[in-house]
């Protein structure tokens, strides 16, 4: 009986492992139509490699979740919202979640090489999921740490994508529809507090007048 329970548990875990689809983490892919060409910039969206993120001083990750997940939003002032159901996706071969950036003329593009596949947690083969690229300044190992780091962060437009029919499907899922974005400074909590005090003082001043 115990053996049967163990075998059942292993079978369930195996089914769960293989019940996750795969999406390709590339913000430049000329092998698909329409092509993916969405560099990531510092402060403002630019053109070409001018002002694009470059080298190991910046990191990026691919987030994902099932349909109904709420993608992250990062405003121009660095205010972060959303994120329900979104998690960092890992390589099925190495377990890597974050990557650095290419340099030179390829600045702005993530340095993933051949290890671009990411396991789409909660999204089965042939199903739809919500995906989003995020990037940050510094050495934070997770998106949550990046948000809390008080450095520059950014998030792409969310993508609702249908994954391939299965692991043998030759048509892999690229991030088609991804658009360029920039990382911006996140205000310190003290800045929010000062802004709140300033707003309160302004209201009191107006009432007295």
Task: Give your account of this protein's structure.
This protein has one domain. The protein is 21% helix and 26% strand. It has three helices and 14 strands. The chain has helices spanning 2-18, 143-148, 189-208, and strands spanning 21-24, 28-29, 36-37, 40-42, 58-66, 73-74, 80-81, 87-88, 98-99, 117-120, 128-137, 152-155, 159-162, 181-185. Strands 4, 5, 8, 9, 11, 12, 13 and 14 form an eight-stranded mixed beta sheet that branches.
Round the Cα radius of gyration to an integer and report it.
20 Å
Distance between the termini: 82 Å
Structural class assignment: alpha+beta
The global form is globular
- SSE run: HEEEEEEEEEEEHEEEH
Work out the strand percent: 25-35%
Strand tally, please?
A: 14
Question: What is this structure's SSE topology?
Answer:
Layout: H1 2-18, E1 21-24, E2 28-29, E3 36-37, E4 40-42, E5 58-66, E6 73-74, E7 80-81, E8 87-88, E9 98-99, E10 117-120, E11 128-137, H2 143-148, E12 152-155, E13 159-162, E14 181-185, H3 189-208
Parallel strand pairs: 4-14
Antiparallel strand pairs: 1-10, 2-3, 5-8, 5-9, 5-11, 6-7, 11-12, 11-13, 12-14
């Amino acid at each position: 009986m115990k053996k049967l329970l163990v075998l059942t548990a292993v079978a369930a875990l195996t089914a769960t492992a293989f019940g996750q689809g795969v999406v390709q983490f590339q913000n430049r892919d000329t092998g698909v139509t329409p092509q993916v060409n969405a560099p990531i910039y510092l402060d403002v969206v630019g053109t070409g490699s001018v002002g694009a993120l470059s080298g190991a001083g910046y990191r990026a990750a691919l987030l994902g979740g099932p349909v109904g997940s709420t993608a992250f939003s990062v405003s121009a002032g660095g205010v972060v919202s959303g994120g329900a159901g979104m998690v960092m996706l890992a390589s099925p071969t190495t377990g890597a979640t974050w990557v650095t950036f290419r340099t030179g003329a390829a600045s702005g593009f993530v340095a993933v090489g051949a290890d671009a596949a990411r396991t789409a947690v909660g999204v089965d083969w042939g199903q739809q999921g919500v995906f989003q690229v995020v990037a940050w300044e510094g050495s934070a190992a997770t998106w949550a740490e990046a948000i809390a780091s008080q450095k520059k962060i950014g998030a792409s437009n969310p993508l609702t994508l249908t994954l391939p029919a299965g692991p043998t499907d030759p048509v892999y899922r690229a991030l088609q529809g991804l658009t360029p974005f920039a990382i911006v400074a996140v205000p310190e909590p003290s800045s929010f507090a000062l802004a709140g005090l300033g707003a309160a003082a302004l209201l009191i001043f107006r009432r007295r007048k």
